[in-house]
Here is the input.
Amino acid sequence: MEKADAAHRAVELIEAAVGAEGFEAFSGGTLPFLAELARTAETFLYVSDPRLSSPHYAAHGLSSEGSSALERSCPDWFAELGDDLEAKRVTARIGDAEATYALHPLPVDGRAIGIVGVPAEGDDRLVVESVWPRLLSALGRIADRLAARVSSERKLLHLNTYLTVSTTLAKSVDLAELLEIALYCSMEAASAEAASILLLDEAEENFQFYRVEGAAKPLLGGSTFPAAEGIAGRVLETLEAEIVDDVEADPRFYGQIDLKTGYRTRNLIAVPLVAGDERIGVLEVLNRLDGGSFTADERLILVSVADEIAFAVRNATIFDYVVNTYCKRRQGKNSCKGCERPLGSWTPCMRYREFLP
Here is the structure.
């Protein structure tokens, strides 16, 4: 490949990278070009930045075994680079063999945002070496802009999910409507096939699938299990949200519900529902739609709406208790509709009456 040819191909690569809307498209469009410039069949890319919920890794031309081995090694290799923007060679064990790769940092503002790896023999015959560093520099800047964009989109999704749930809570006193919207927002935010709210009973001995939306709705609704069991029980005990990417490998998983209902749980995010000091239950999203793993960002989004859900459930429970034990005694069975003596100092009471037909 002549210099003019290589420069032309480099421009094509940059155009493809600039037009990418995410890191999957970015790596899918650039790795084949990089392999061509290095005259090799194999390349891989690793991008790591605090703005990303998790590092991005992609490979081209590698076997699944080889790709997995390199993916496991990339975090350590990237950490070893530090502020050094010089290419270095590393050895990776793939099966029973060893392979040597050249790691080229993707520079931006004096630091590396990622690395491109090519086999050592490919590094020795790079086409037009003067094109290569400029190309890596351009790709580093593009990766930096993509990281900023992904971060902004994630924050926007976080905000939209929170605002949707909190706005619904402010406008509606219908708990069923609120929880339906909250669960669908949770499913969308985490790309999950189902979501559920597990509530503690009055004795705090059992969980009930109080509300379920998505694929699990016809199977899990109304099911109960001991509150001391399962991942949900542990999450409510520790008050720490958890991501479990392989429930069958987690000894805490309470598999009896799956056995009884026929629903198969693969992975989940579980978030405690706490209203003040009162433990209400657990919010769960189940089974990521693409078969992949849930992310820390998705967990944070669910944590942000969990308080809204917990207080909505607690307020509804208190309201029902007051109506059943106080209002109906004082004013009869139809105490809310036509109530002549509302609890004027109690917001849930006044707001509920505004929505009565």
Summary: Residues 3-150 form a domain with the Beta-Lactamase fold (CATH 3.30.450.40). Residues 131-171 form the longest helix (41 residues). The chain is about 50% helix and 25% strand. The mean pLDDT is 81.
